[in-house]
Amino acid sequence: MSELARLYHEATGFGSGRPPRPSVPGFIPSDPANRPVPFKRYSGAPVLGLPTDLPPGGAPAVAALSGRVPPAGNGVDLEFLARLLFLSAGVTRWAEVQEQAVWFRTAPSAGNRHPVEVYVAAGAVAGLETGLYHFAPDVFGLEELSTGDHRPALADAAAAPEVAADPLVLVLTGVPWRTAWKYGERGWRHVYWDAGTMLANLLTVTEAYGMRAQVLLGFVDSALSRRLGIDGIAEFPIAVVTIGGPGEPTPTGEQPAPHLAASPPAPAPLELPLITEVQRAGQLATTGQVTAWRAAAPAGTRGADTVEPPANAPDETIDSLILRRGSTRRMRPDLVPPELLEWGMAVAGRPLPADALPSGATLLSHRLTVHAVRGLEAGLYDRTGGRSEPYRTASEASVRRLSRYLCRDQALGGDAAFTDYVFTDLDRVLDAYGDRGYRVAQLEAGVAAGRLQLAAFALGYGGTGLTFTDDDVAAAFGGRGACMLAVSVGIPAYQARPGGPPGRPTRLDRVVTSRRA
Predict the structure, then answer these.
(1) What is the C-alpha to C-alpha distance for residues 121 and 286, in angstroms, rounded to an integer?
(2) Are residues 187 and 286 in the same domain?
């Protein structure tokens, strides 16, 4: 079993009896003088404005979340790329808080930190020249980093020749200081969680429009970093995502990696050694290592690729749903119908189309605290074989108190109708994958959390991700595995204003915050 990922997990967990983490010289959590800048930009890079007139289309969100939209065989064009980028990483709302502009985006992010950047390697994208681009959400445009076809280089880095023929390739990267600024070393977990919630949006949008995506988590880290012009420390690669295809590669020859100057992530960003060490510990150095790493993937638990949507479900489009969605910061402790839990958890449990997972498999398991779901006694539950099986029943009041405590005294944990705790067998994952397996489990947990929240909003309810006390959550469910993430689902206590379209984010007069129990 890998020891460094285990050490990191234990060192960054919340719980009783843990010694304080070693301090990093000069690190002041949430230091306003060293606040991360919200958007990365490249000085001198040509900016291509993306289409902003994106009328809603595609299949209903409920059908897409259920995996019930057949492939359409459409090609990829600039309008679809603009829609995909906006609904995955775009800006929809903003507010002025203490005389500073605060931006809110389409995918959930812990503390509104948004540590994930998106790069575009365009091949056969109608309306867009072949090249390597960086998505700039603040201006809703593509910054051109290098012309020519960069897909062959990405295919080499990922040890996946088919990438060179896919019309569109996206690369997600993480900027750890954006989350470490607030959460310290635990912020590395948030980078992968947030990449997962962004992928939940991206995968649902591609399905709603009859497209398919494949997520590659195995790649030569240094080669992919060089191709993007990043250092692998202050910004590191997370995932390669292919869209559409297969097509034909464009014979343009080898293209140089970009060397444009980028804006710094903060006035004086700090490198937290534990984050650097655990990221490096999971790196793959050769394509042979990538191939062997994929082959070592454990079987995992089987999940259903498609699920049955609720009867009389709304036919709202995914575009409209994502604009309406926003992390629910306060909930009413009222009763909800069973389909919210059963369909929502089925959606969350759909397999991730990733190279690191055998087809149809998941590394995750789900355990619930159920407070107010019609037809279920209050208590703790296991999700087994697509069903919610009682682990321990108790009074509603006591389960709500326990949930609040497990979610670090955040009222949402207990006010929700139920809270999902996403688990993995960390020993098994690390034995099979090595240190890199920790990335896979955290990212897959983020995808499950993002899908569950989308499902809740699709049925007219709300949801939000929450931090938790690692030791106590595991103990509450008998010490079986390690908790990766927690998500509360229930009835919003207020009506959120929908976000605005590309380039016209909605201004919020006030920002709703969660409260302590």
Answers:
(1) 22
(2) yes
pLDDT tens readout for residues 171-196: 999 999 999 999 999 999 999 999 99
* 194 Rama sector, left if φ>0, alpha if ψ -120 to 50, beta otherwise: alpha
Question: Residue 449: inside a domain, yes or no?
Answer: yes
Q: What contacts 380, CB < 8 A, 6 or more positions away?
A: 367, 368, 369, 370, 390, 391, 392, 393, 394, 399, 476, 477
CA 119-193-133 angle, 5° bins: 5
> If DSSP codes are grouped into helix, strand and coil, which group holds residue 491?
strand
Give the burial string for 228-267 (b: 16+ CB within 10 Å, else e).
Answer: bbbebebbbbbbbbbbbbebebbeeeebebbeeebeebbe
Neighbours of 296 (CB within 10 A): 13
Selection from 202, 146, 144, 151 nearest residue 172 by Cα: 202
Q: What is the pTM of this model?
A: 0.96
Q: What angle do CA 275, 278, 445 make, to 5 degrees?
A: 90
Number of domains observed in the structure of the chain: 2
Here the tokens at position 292 are 């062997």
Over its C-alpha atoms, the chain yields an Rg (Å, rounded) of 21
With CA atoms as reference, report the closest residue to 66 among 346, 321, 316, 312: 346
- Name the residue range of residue 279's domain: 33-249+268-295
Q: What CA–CA distance (Å, rounded) separates 195 from 177? A: 15
Instruction: State whether 224 and 371 are in the same domain.
Output: no
CATH number for the domain spanning 353: value is: 3.40.109.10
Kindly report the backbone phi and psi dihedral angles of residue 59, in degrees, each rounded to the nearest multiple of 5, phi listed first. Answer: -75, 160
CA dihedral 310, 314, 317, 320 (to 10 degrees): -120
Amino acid letter, residue 510:
R
Q: Are residues 369 and 240 in the same domain?
A: no
CB atoms within 10 A of CB 277: 14
User: How far is it, in rounded angstroms, from Cα 453 to Cα 326?
Assistant: 9
| Phi, psi of 123, rounded to the nearest 5 degrees | -115, -100
| pLDDT confidence tier of residue 98, bands split at 50, 70 and 90 | confident
Q: Which residues pair with 143 in a beta bridge?
A: 47, 134
pLDDT at 115 over 60: yes
If asked whether residues 221 and 148 sit together in one domain, one would say yes
